Amino acid sequence: MTRHQKRLAVPNSWPVERKTNTFTVKAGAGPHGEAGVPLVVLLRDVLGYVDSKKEARYALNNDAVLVNGDPVSNERRPIGMFDILSFPSREEYFRVFPDEGGRLALTPIDASAADGRLGKVMNKTVVPGGEIQLTLHDGTNVRVDADTDYATKDSIVIDNESKEIVAHFEYGEGALVTAVAGQHAGRIGEIESIDVTLGSGSNGVVVSDDDGGYETVEEYLVVIDENFTDDDAPDATTEEVDADEAGDSDE
């Protein structure tokens, strides 16, 4: 397997310039699969907090960056949708959220909102002992009691310190959702209707919002709560730094 990542071949969700340098940092093993953005890309190319991988390693070795409440030491750790980035010394907190066009953006949030992260339930299985295992969109597995009422396509909030579920948002008509993929990515609205498709096809969903609404498939939707629609929050950080100004792309 190659250790290199060409900029032209990165997923569309990565917030990087594609026609500057040839290569960028390749994501390491971890959550979010191939869609995960290496942490150093966000620190260097988006936030501009470091100029190189060497500076990123120094910051991480001093526990200056937390991901979902935990210190991170690997600059190539994949970061993806709904992860929480915290910079305690700077008192800055960000949630990774899909922007228009599907690119991941860093949305500034309050410290209180950084205590937990959202996860979409992708799979639900029974494990030995009778408990239920929920698999989330980033690959995280969470075990819950068999009598709890969680379903696939629901969303849960996991406390970053206790790792316990602290909130549950059900998927269905009337639910507040955001599109995370497709041409409507980044738009927030309420589910108006769900068109169940017979067979293996995707169910269609009509979502109403202030721009007249849109239609999409339910795989592209994630249930959220009203905290994600705070109009008073600062604008999302989506700037892209030219690689020539940010140092070598792979150093």
UniProtKB/TrEMBL annotation:
Gene Ontology MF term list: rRNA binding; structural constituent of ribosome
Pfam families named among the record's database cross-references: Ribosomal_S4e, RS4NT
InterPro entries membership: Rib_uL2_dom2, Ribosomal_eS4, Ribosomal_eS4_central_region, Ribosomal_eS4_central_sf, Ribosomal_eS4_KOW, Ribosomal_eS4_N, Ribosomal_eS4_N_CS, S4_RNA-bd_sf
Protein name: Small ribosomal subunit protein eS4
Keyword field: Ribonucleoprotein, Ribosomal protein, RNA-binding, rRNA-binding
Residue segments, region Disordered: 227-251
Small ribosomal subunit protein eS4 central region domain mapped to chain residues: 91-165
Domain Small ribosomal subunit protein eS4 N-terminal: start-end pairs: 2-32
Superkingdom classification of source: Archaea
HAMAP family: Ribosomal_eS4
GO-annotated cellular components: cytosolic small ribosomal subunit
Organism: Halorubrum vacuolatum
GO biological process, one term: translation
